[in-house]
C-alpha cells in the first residue's frame, strides 16, 4: 500500500522538494518491486508524483520477473533485490534501453535510490548510464536538535535556534504535529540523513523525563520519522537515575545504576524498536558526568553502551569537555587542548557501540578553526565528527553563510598529512550536524540557510563531493527551471558567503570576538577577560595565541607530525590559521605579502563590500523569486550589511587604536 | 488613641530602630499634647517604648496649659502648637529645668521631633540645651521605588534591585502586607523621608493600570504609609489614555487627553486624599512622551500638572532624556550634554506644581561624575535632584560602598562657583533617591547598605550635615551601646568605602567600563562600541573624553562661568574628573604628581588592598555583631574582594596592553 506523502501546513515552504522537482518522475511509468513500510513510502512518493503529472506506477513483488506485469515498457524500475551486495543503504543506478533502474539490497537503499532519481530530475531519464553503485560514506548521518521541551529562561525553546520554535516541542509539551514531522523526515531522507536526536544535549528536568514517563512523546516522533528511514535518538542526562528515581549515585560502575539504565533502555526499545540510541554531554559546561565518581569518560560511555548493546543501540558521547571556569590570567591553560588531553589517552577503551562525537574544531564552531586533533588521534575508537548547521557563530541565519566549503575542507582534511585517511574516513561513527531547523515557514529562518541543511546531508553521504556541485543541485531542486540569471545570482551570493563572513569577523583564525551570551555581532574583547578560554591577547604590539610547542601551549604538538610541523612554525602555518597558532606583531608579513594589520583592515573593508554586493545581486532577482521568499532574504540582507559594517568598524577601530598603524589605503577608520 | 507600633515579621532586621534605640525615651515620663492621626502615631511610639522600659506617657490636649495634668514633673514634653512659625514639618527642641521640650507647629513636625529625640538617645535628656529650631531643607524628601508589579523578563521584580523582591508587589499582584509596609514607613520617617513612589518609572501594562482599575492596591499602600507622614506617588505611563481607554492620541494639548487625565486624577484623589503626585519618565530609553506629538517636555509636564493642581499634587518629570541609539562612531554627539540641551531652554515654562527631577550627574549614577549642569541652569524651574541609593553601578549591595560623601559633595556643590547657591538650595522641588530596599530580611541585601538609606534621609533633611556625623548616628542607633572597637571598625570599613570602590573601578571620572546589561563587574570595552553613549576612547596613546568647548563636545560650557573655566582646562580640571572632561596621554601628569597610567595602576592595587583590609577588619568584629549579620557581611566581602581583584586585573591589563607602559613599582600585571 502506498503511504501518502505528507501534506505541508499552509504557508510552509517545500524547500528542495517542491512539487515541480518531482515532475520528471511524475510524468513517467514506474515499476516498484519490493515490500515493507519503506517500499510503501517509495510507492507513495511515486504515486503522488504520478497523480500530479500524469505518469503511472505499478507495484510488483520483490524478486518477481523483471518483465513488466502489464507488458508495457517502464521508464523506471525501482527494485529491492537481496542478492545485491550494496549494504543496507546502498543502491545501484543505471539506464539502459530506455529504462532507468534503481536496485537496492534493502528498502532503505531503495528510498535513497528514489531520491537520487528525484535529485537528478530529467537527467535520470536521459541517455544510457552505465551501472553506478552508490553507498553512503558512513552509516550514520545525523542531525542533533538542541530543542528544549520546556522553554529555557535564557536559551529559549531551541538553544542556538534561529528559525522560530521547535518542530517537536512547545511550552513544555510535544506539539503532536506528526504530519509536519513526517514532512521534515522526508526532506532529510531526500538528502540522505538517517538519524535525528530530538532534544538538546543540555538536558534539564522536563527533558530528562523523556527517557521514562514521557517516552510516549518520543515514540510519537519516532513513528513520524520512521517512514523516511530516520531513527530517533534521545539526549539523556547522565544523572537521570538520581534525578528520576532517587538513586544515591550515578556512578557508572555501580551495579544499581547499571541495572537502572538497563531497565530504562529495555522500556525505550519496547516503545521504539528501531530507537537509535543516546546522545550525552557529560562533565561539560556544568552537566553531570562520570568525573564526580572518579570514573573516566570511557567508563561513562561504556555503561550506557552496555545497556544499549542488546538492542543494537549506540551511545554518542560528546568530546566537548573543557574547563569553562578558566582564569584568563592563566596563559598555561588552553581550551583548544582540552578534548585531546581528555580523550586521546582513552583510545581503545570505548565499547564498540560507543561513538565519541567530536566537534570539527578544537574550540566551538568558529568561522575558522583548525581541524580537531582528536580526529586523527583515536584510531581504535569509533569517532563521529560534529559540525554546526545552526549558524551560532556564523551569522545566526540573519547573514548568508553557506558552510559547504568549510565542511568539505574539514571532511577531506587528512589527519596524518597527505597520505593518511581523511576526517570523513576516520569518522567511522558518523557525521553529525547541529540542526538549523525550526518551525519557521522557511524551516531555517533565512531561506538561503536551507542550502546548509541540504549540503550537510549530501556531504555526509558523500564527503568527497564538490560542495559547489551540491549547491548547484540545491539550486536546481529548490528553484525548478530557474533561468540562468537566477541560478547565477544564487551561486554568486552563496558560493563565497562563508569567506565573506570570515572577512568581516574575527581575523586569521583567532576566533570569537563576539558579544558574550547571544554570540551575535562584534565584541572584540567580549571574551577576552572571561572564564571561557577564548582569548586573542591583542596588545599594542601584536595579536594571536601562541599554541606552538616551542614557546606556547603545545597544542600544535597534538597533531600528527606532518601537521604539527606545519602549524608549529610561523613560516609554514597557513595564513588563515596564523593567529590561532601564533602571537605575531602587527607588522608580520603573511604569505599573501600583506602585513597582519593591513590584512585585518583590507579583509574587513572587503567583507562589507562583498555583503553589499550580495545584497545588490539579490535585489536584482526580485522578478525571479516568489515575493515572500525574496522579501525575507532582502530584509535579512539589510541586517547583514548593517551588522557587517558594525563588525568592520569595531574590529578596525579596535586594532587601529591598539596598533596605531594607519590604513595603507587611507580609508576612514573611526 | 495611640497607634500601635508596627510589628516586624519574624527575622526581619529592625535596622536603625532596634528596641534598644528607644530605651532612653522609654524609661522616661512624657507628656504629649496634640491631636490627630500623626499625634496618635507619636503617642503609640512613646507608649510602646514606655511599655518596654517602664516609663510613662500622658496625652494632653493641644493648647492646654503646660503644667503636668497629674502634677508630676515630665522628662519630655512633645507638643503641637499652631502658634509656632516652624512650618508644617519643623520643630523646636530644647531642654530646661530637667524637661526636654519638642514643640511643632503641626503633627508632622511633632513626628520628626519625636524621632529627633530617639536619634539623640540619652543625650536628649542631658544638660540644658538652648532652643534649637529644626526645619527640613526641602519640603520633599522622596524615595523612588523601581518596583515592577509584574516580573519583568529581564529586569525582574525590582529593576536594579539587589535586596530581594519588592515590599509592595509580587508576581503581578500587591503583596498586601500592610504591617511591613508600615514598618518600612516608620524607618523612613525616623530619618525624615516623607514621600515614596511605589512603582518603577518604566511603566509596563500591569503598572499602567495602577492608575485606574488597580488604584485600590495603591490606596492600600498609601494607607499603610500615611501614619508615618509619607505621601504616596505613582509612576505613570504618558500613553496611559491610549493604552487604557483607547484614545487615539496622548497629545498633551489634546482636550480629550487633558480631560482623561483630569478624570483619572480626580478618581485617584477620591481614593487617596493625600496622594503626592506622579513620576514620569517620558521620551527616554523608549518610553512614550510628548515628542511624538511635536510637543515639548514642558507641554507634557504641564498637562499632568494641570490635572494634579486642584488637589495639591505634583508631577515629577524626569530629565533623564538622551539618545539611547547613538552611533559610537559619531564623536560629535555627547550623552552628557543631553539633559541640558533638552531642558535648559525650557526654564520658566514649567508649571508651579511641576518638578523637573534631575539625576545628580550628567550620565547615570557612576561612582564619579561631575554635578549635572542642569542643576545650575534653571533658576525659574522647581528642580529636584535624584541620587541612587540602590547600588546599580557601585557594587550592587555585594560591595560596601557608603555613598554619603558623594551625595554630600553633590548637595553642597555651588553651581555658580564659590558664592552661588548649592545644589541643595537650587533643588527647591526636593531631594530624591532611587530606593535600595526590598523584601530582604536586612531590607537592603547588604546589611551595611542600610547606612546608605539612613544617610540619604538625613542628608535630604539637612544637606549641609557632615556625612561622617550621620554615619556615626547610624552606627549608634543600629548597634546600640556598641563598644568603641565595633564603632571604630564600622567607621573604618564604611567611611572610605566609596573612594575604595572608585579606586578599583573606572578611573578618573571616565565612568562605565562595566559589563553591559546587568552592570556588575568589569568590562572595560563593555560600552565602548555601543549605542548608549558611554565611551572612554582609550587608544595606545591616551584615554578620556574631550568635553571641552575649545576642542571637544562643548559640554564644559554648559556650566556657569566659574565651573566652565575650571573644567575647560586640563590644568585646572580636578584630577578625579580629568578623563570625564579631557582626552589625555597616558604620560600626562596629574595634580597628584603621578602620570595617568601610574595613577590607574596604583589606585587599582590600592583599591583591592583596601577591600582586603576592610574584609579583615570585619572579620575581627565577629564577637561584637550578631552571627547572622556578621556572616552575611563576611560572605559579601568575599565576593567584593574577588570582584575587586577582577576589576584591578582587567583594568590594569587592559591599559598595560594598550599603553605598553610598565608599572613603576614592577607589580604583576597579567
UniProtKB/TrEMBL annotation, chains A, B:
Domain Glycosyl hydrolase family 67 catalytic: 132-443
Domain Glycosyl hydrolase family 67 C-terminal: 444-667
Pfam families, alphabetized: Glyco_hydro_67C, Glyco_hydro_67M
Gene Ontology CC: extracellular region
InterPro entries reported in the protein's UniProt record: A-glucoronidase_C_sf, GH, Glyco_hydro_67_C, Glyco_hydro_67_cat
GO MF: alpha-glucuronidase activity; xylan alpha-1,2-glucuronosidase activity
A biological process from GO: xylan catabolic process
Domain of life: Bacteria
SUPFAM superfamilies in alphabetical order: (Trans)glycosidases
Name of the featured protein: Xylan alpha-1,2-glucuronidase
Organism: Streptomyces phaeofaciens
Lineage: Bacteria, Bacillati, Actinomycetota, Actinomycetes, Kitasatosporales
Amino acid at each position: 500500500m502506498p503511504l501518502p506523502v505528507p501534506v505541508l501546513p499552509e504557508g510552509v515552504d517545500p524547500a528542495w522538494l517542491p512539487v515541480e522537482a518531482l515532475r520528471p518522475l511524475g510524468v513517467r511509468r514506474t515499476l516498484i518491486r519490493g515490500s515493507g513500510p519503506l517500499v510503501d513510502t517509495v510507492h507513495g512518493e511515486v504515486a503522488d508524483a504520478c497523480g500530479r503529472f500524469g505518469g503511472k506506477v505499478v507495484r510488483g513483488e520483490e524478486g518477481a520477473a523483471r518483465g513488466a506485469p502489464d507488458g508495457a515498457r517502464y521508464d523506471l524500475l525501482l527494485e529491492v533485490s537481496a542478492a545485491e551486495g550494496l549494504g543496507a543503504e546502498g543502491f545501484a543506478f543505471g539506464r539502459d534501453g530506455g529504462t532507468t533502474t534503481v536496485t537496492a539490497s534493502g528498502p532503505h537503499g531503495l528510498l535513497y535510490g528514489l531520491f537520487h532519481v528525484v535529485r537528478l530530475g530529467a537527467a535520470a531519464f536521459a541517455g544510457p548510464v552505465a551501472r553506478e553503485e552508490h553507498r553512503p560514506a558512513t552509516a550514520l548521518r545525523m542531525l542533533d536538535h538542541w530543542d528544549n521541551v520546556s522553554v529555557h529562561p535564557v536559551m529559549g525553546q531551541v538553544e542556538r535556534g534561529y528559525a522560530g520554535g521547535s518542530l517537536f516541542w512547545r511550552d513544555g509539551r510535544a506539539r503532536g504535529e506528526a504530519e509536519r514531522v513526517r514532512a521534515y523526515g522526508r526532506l532529510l531522507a531526500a538528502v540522505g540523513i538517517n538519524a535525528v536526536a530530538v532534544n538538546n544535549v543540555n538536558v534539564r528536568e522536563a527533558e530528562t523525563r523523556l527517557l521514562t514517563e514521557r517516552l510516549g512523546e518520543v515514540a510519537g516522533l519516532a513513528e513520524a520519522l520512521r517512514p523516511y528511514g530516520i531513527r530517533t535518538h534521545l539526549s539523556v542526562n547522565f544523572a537521570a537515575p538520581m534525578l528520576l528515581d532517587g538513586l544515591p549515585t550515578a556512578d557508572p560502575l555501580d551495579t544499581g545504576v547499571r541495572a537502572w539504565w538497563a531497565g530504562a533502555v529495555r522500556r525505550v526499545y519496547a516503545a521504539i524498536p528501531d530507537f537509535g540510541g543516546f546522545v550525552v554531554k557529560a562533565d561539560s559546561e556544568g552537566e553531570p558526568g562520570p568525573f564526580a565518581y572518579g570514573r573516566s569518560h570511557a567508563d561513562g560511555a561504556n555503561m550506557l553502551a552496555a545497556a544499549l548493546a542488546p538492542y543494537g543501540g549506540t551511545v554518542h558521547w560528546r568530546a566537548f569537555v573543557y574547563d569553562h571556569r578558566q582564569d584568563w590570567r592563566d596563559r598555561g591553560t588552553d581550551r583548544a587542548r582540552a578534548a585531546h588531553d581528555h580523550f586521546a589517552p582513552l583510545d581503545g577503551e570505548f565499547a564498540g557501540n560507543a561513538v565519541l562525537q567530536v566537534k570539527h574544531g578544537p574550540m566551538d564552531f568558529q568561522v575558522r578553526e583548525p581541524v580537531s586533533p582528536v580526529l586523527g588521534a583515536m584510531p581504535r575508537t569509533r569517532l563521529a565528527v560534529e559540525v554546526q548547521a545552526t549558524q551560532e557563530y556564523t551569522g545566526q541565519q540573519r547573514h548568508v553563510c553557506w558552510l559547504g566549503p568549510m565542511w568539505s575542507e574539514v571532511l577531506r582534511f587528512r589527519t596524518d598529512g597527505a597520505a593518511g585517511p581523511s576526517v570523513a574516513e576516520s569518522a567511522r561513527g558518523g557525521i553529525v550536524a547541529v540542526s538549523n531547523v525550526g518551525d519557521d515557514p522557511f524551516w531555517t529562518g533565512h531561506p538561503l540557510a536551507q542550502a546548509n541543511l541540504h549540503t550537510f546531508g549530501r556531504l555526509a553521504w558523500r564527503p568527497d563531493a564538490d560542495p559547489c556541485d551540491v549547491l548547484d543541485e540545491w539550486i536546481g531542486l529548490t528553484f525548478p527551471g530557474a533561468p540562468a540569471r537566477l541560478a547565477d545570482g544564487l551561486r554568486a551570493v552563496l558560493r563565497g558567503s562563508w569567506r565573506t563572513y570570515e572577512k568581516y569577523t574575527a581575523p586569521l583564525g583567532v576566533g570569537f570576538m563576539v558579544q558574550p551570551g547571544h554570540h551575535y555581532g562584534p565584541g572584540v574583547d567580549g571574551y577576552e577577560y572571561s572564564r571561557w578560554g577564548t582569548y586573542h591577547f591583542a596588545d599594542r604590539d601584536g595579536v594571536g595565541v601562541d599554541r606552538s610547542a616551542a614557546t606556547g601551549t603545545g597544542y600544535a604538538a597534538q597533531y600528527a607530525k606532518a601537521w604539527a610541523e606545519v602549524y608549529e612554525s610561523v613560516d609554514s602555518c597557513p595564513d588563515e590559521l596564523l593567529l590561532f597558532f601564533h602571537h605575531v606583531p602587527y607588522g608580520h608579513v603573511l604569505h599573501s605579502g600583506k602585513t597582519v594589520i593591513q590584512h585585518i583592515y583590507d579583509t574587513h573593508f572587503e567583507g562589507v563590500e562583498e555583503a553589499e554586493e550580495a545584497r545588490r545581486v539579490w535585489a536584482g532577482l526580485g522578478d525571479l523569486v516568489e515575493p515572500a521568499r525574496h522579501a525575507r532574504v532582502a530584509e535579512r540582507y539589510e541586517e547583514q550589511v548593517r551588522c557587517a559594517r558594525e563588525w568592520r568598524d569595531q574590529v578596525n577601530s579596535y586594532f587601529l587604536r591598539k596598533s596605531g598603524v594607519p590604513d595603507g589605503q587611507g580609508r576612514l577608520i573611526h
